Amino acid sequence: ETGVTQSPTHLIKTRGQQVTLRCSSQSGHNTVSWYQQALGQGPQFIFQYYREEENGRGNFPPRFSGLQFPNYSSELNVNALELDDSALYLCASSPSPGDNEQFFGPGTRLTVL
Amino acid sequence: AQRVTQPEKLLSVFKGAPVELKCNYSYSGSPELFWYVQYSRQRLQLLLRHISRESIKGFTADLNKGETSFHLKKPFAQEEDSAMYYCAPPTVANAGGTSYGKLTFGQGTILTVHP
Questions:
Q1: Which pLDDT belongs to residue A109?
Q2: pLDDT at site B80
Q3: CA-CA distance, A2 to A105, in Å (whole number)?
Q4: Nearest 10 degrees: CA dihedral of A81, A85, A89, A95?
Q5: Per-residue burial over A74-89, b = 16 or more CB atoms within 10 Å of its CB, e = otherwise
Q6: Cα distance from B86 to chain A (closest Cα, Å)?
Q7: What is the pLDDT of residues B7-40, one digit of tens each?
Q8: DSSP code of A26?
């Protein structure tokens, strides 16, 4: 069974740029959720993708967007990067959208200068 | 809005001592709660799910609806229990007619077990 993988591991961008983060879900899981974890804080829910559509969103602005592909992998896109976007971005997959037990990837550390 | 409070950011105990990590919540929805753990240099992983009532690595947690608490306990702490612990009540809500689960995490408690 393959676990959740994320790429890249680390990323450095400058303010105003755009970034794309990638996630492959665990084998057999069709639902992907993204979380932002700022330093010293717990993860915050960004949104969830199911059947290639956004299926719920947390309190994040529209410049945070995503995609899900037929193989259930997902991308998180952030436009017009701000300094406060610096964080660890976690991807989690689950067998179905209503399943609250989620399996996390190792995260992508984004630094915005 | 749903809130989760983990009042202790840091908790230190000695090996063999009992340990309790506190979690208080306010939410609407089904009473399903989780504890997640993150060991050093490892990914966030599920430790305990209250519905299953399983004891994982000797940890247990009881849902107290009256106090709205879900404290994590272990009678005899081990050095390998040193980690970051997050309490996470999920919310199942309807978005466009499809239910979804999301986790609301507390700020976490760093547990250090000294030899």
A1: 97
A2: 96
A3: 11
A4: -80
A5: bbbebeebeeebbbbb
A6: 7
A7: 999 999 999 999 999 999 886 555 578 899 999 9
A8: P
- Do residues B36 and B44 lie in contact, with contact meaning Cβ atoms separated by under 8 Å? yes
| Order of strands, sheet of B45-49, starting from the edge strand that comes earlier in the sequence | B10-14, B109-114, B83-88, B34-38, B45-49
Q: Tell me the C-alpha distance between A82 and B40, whole Å.
A: 29
Place of tokens 């436009």: A79
Length of chain A: 113
Residue B68 has a pLDDT of: 83
- Rounded to whole angstroms, how far apart are CA atoms B15 and B92? 38
Query: In angstroms, rounded to a whole number, what is the distance separating the alpha carbons of residues A60 and A50?
Result: 18
**Cα torsion angle, B27, B28, B34, B37, sign:** negative
Which chain A residue has the Cα nearest residue B99?
Answer: A98
**C-beta of residue A85 within 8 angstroms of C-beta of residue A110:** yes
Residues of chain B with pLDDT under 70: 1-2, 27-31, 51-54, 90-101
Q: Distance between CA B52 and CA B32 in Å, rounded?
A: 10
| The two structure tokens encoding residue B29 | 């929805």
Tell me which of A31, A48, A101 to substitute to probe the interface with B (most B C-beta atoms closer than 10 Å). Answer: A101
